[in-house]
Amino acid sequence: MPLRIHPRLAAALLAAALLTPLRADAQLGGLLKKAKDKVEQKQQENSSARPSDAFGPALTEESLPAVLKGLAVTNDLLTQRDGIQKQRDAVNQRRSTLLSAHEAERDAWERAQDATSSCISTVLEKVNQKHQAEMQARLPALMADQAKFQAFQQANMKMSQELMAAQAKHDTAGINAIMSRFYKDQFGIDVKADSASAQSQCGKLAPKPAWMIQVEAQSDTVDKLDTQMRDLESRAEAQGAVASGMDAVKFAMARERLVNWLDGRKRGHYVQQFSSDEIKLFERHQAEIEKVSRAL
Question: What is the pTM (predicted TM-score) of this model?
Answer without folding.
Answer: 0.64
